[in-house]
């Protein structure tokens, strides 16, 4: 049975990917960062069969050790400082982890693989934030990148470094340009989860309003559970390549609010929403919409969960969790 090593195991995608690979019979290892990481308990509860290794993307020798101790056939680099708004305030940390961290893990994999650099397959979690000030609608693998945040710039670095290692060393390295993907496990700093949780609280009478930023921004939102399947499929191809993963639909924050509030029976939602410049960004990515034709034709991948189903799934999960007192 194959073995996989995942960085970012404590995040939304790491957890879904670990579940997928375990179900396929993989031996799954994860790199976990920091002393007393509060999310360790979550990983141990949700995916108890995953073997954890202490390590950090900024620490090359810890990555070398994790590779030595797990001997993976596949490495998925999902670890990153991933919140766009935070990346302006912490541009150096974001560049270190989200950018240079990719070089560290690529270098660790290359050194560990020795004479046969293609023997360990590598996945890099690239991002639609790389398109930023979009130069083409919809965005595909060939669209010029124009990142609009330190996070986006760091992801561009990781993306090109992945391509460079593929071209320079013949590594089986793939870059998945994933558009926003959400789930009930999404962090509460992201807009979908912020809305689903607040709407659940408003429905249960635990809160009265939600304070938001720009309501006109648009995103192409998919379900994280569908997107980790695409990651795995990329590494089953004969060669590494780059793929856009998206639904091809775009929705505004206003539509997100409408679907979430309507689902709990509130139609005049505007009285519950206040806008505050605190949640506005120095530069905005206005219109993200992906063209996943290549993934559809080469990987046979397509998203299963559509926007409304995704939003209502998240609201229902938050209502259930709050009712259960979690
Ligand atoms: P991102 O695409 O990785 O930045 O994902 P987010 O979920 O953090 O943000 C998606 C979009 O929602 C951005 O265009 C934000 O400007 C917009 N937005 C509007 N209000 C909020 C808010 O209160 N919180 C967050 N996180 N985003 C908001």
Automatic annotation (TrEMBL):
Keyword entries, A-Z: Lyase, NADP
Catalyses which reaction(s): GDP-alpha-D-mannose = GDP-4-dehydro-alpha-D-rhamnose + H2O
One GO process term, biological-process aspect: 'de novo' GDP-L-fucose biosynthetic process
Residue ranges of every copy of the NAD(P)-binding domain listed in the record: 5-314
EC number: 4.2.1.47
EC category name: lyase
CDD domains, per database record: GDP_MD_SDR_e
Swiss-Prot/TrEMBL cofactor(s): NADP(+)
Keyword presence, NADP: yes
Keyword Lyase in annotation: yes
TM segment ranges: none
A GO molecular function held by the record: NADP+ binding
PANTHER family to which the protein is assigned, alphabetical: GDP-MANNOSE 4,6 DEHYDRATASE, GDP-MANNOSE 4,6-DEHYDRATASE
Record family assignment: Belongs to the NAD(P)-dependent epimerase/dehydratase family. GDP-mannose 4,6-dehydratase subfamily.
Role this protein plays: Catalyzes the conversion of GDP-D-mannose to GDP-4-dehydro-6-deoxy-D-mannose.
Classification via NCBIfam families: gmd
Descriptive protein name: GDP-mannose 4,6-dehydratase
The gene coding this protein: gmd
